[in-house]
Amino acid sequence: EVQLVESGGGLVQGGGSLRLSCAASGFTFDDYGIGWFRQAPGKEREGVSCISSSDSITYYTDSVKGRFTISSDNAKNTVYLQMNSLKPEDTAVYYCAAIGAELLSATNKWYDGLMYDYWGQGTQVTVSS
After folding, report:
1. Which of 96, 105, 100 is nearest to 115 (CA)?
2. Distance between CA 57 and CA 94 in Å, rounded?
3. 53: exposed, middle or buried (C-beta count within 10 Å: 0-12, 13-18, 19+)?
4. What is the per-residue pLDDT across 13-46, written as a single tens digit (0 to 9) for each?
5. Burial of 49 (0-12, 13-18, 19+ CB in 10 A)
6. 3-state secondary structure of 53
7. Which residue in 75, 122, 95 sits closest to 34, CA to CA?
8. What φ, ψ does residue 104 adopt, rounded to 5°?
9. Strand bridging mode 32-39 / 58-60
10. What is the 3-state secondary structure (H, E, C) of 58-123?
11. Cα 32 vs. chain centroid, distance in angstroms?
């Protein structure tokens, strides 16, 4: 059974930090990239970051560059999203998802949720002002 399980969300003051984790199981981790998406109430889902498990190429949306860092521990089949200098506009439910590594490499459409095969259940991040 394929599973992506997010953890690490919570309530934090503006300027603070959180580290999200995405634990993957049920598929060959090295054959996939893992992306992070977020969705705030009333807004569309947004691609935040992605990492290719095979070659560790990383991607970020402009609004989080310099503040968020994605990393992967292939031995643990886990991807992390370190979020620093958090802002109230980062408040959202954060989801991790898996995209085929070949598809990611061929298209670079890491930000397109339709490209992803598997999704986690999400974790809430709330940043107070």
Report:
1. 100
2. 21
3. buried
4. 999 999 999 999 999 999 999 999 999 999 999 9
5. buried
6. coil
7. 95
8. -60, -45
9. unpaired
10. EEECHHHCCCEEEEEECCCCEEEEEECCCCHHHCEEEEEEEEEHHHHHHHCCCCCHHHCCEECCCE
11. 13
Distance CA 126, CA 116 (A): 25
Identify the helix (H) or strand (E) that includes residue 16. none
How big is the CA angle at 5 (ends 40 and 89), to the nearest 5 degrees? 20
Which amino acid belongs to residue 125? V
| Torsion from C-alpha of 74, 22, 39, 114, nearest 10 degrees | 50
Q: Name the strand (E) or helix (H) holding 34.
A: strand 32-39
Position 114 scores a pLDDT of 97
Q: What 3-state DSSP class applies to 48?
A: strand
- Residues 76-106 have pLDDT tens digits of 999 999 999 999 999 999 999 999 999 999 9
Can you read off the two tokens belonging to residue 116?
Answer: 């992803």
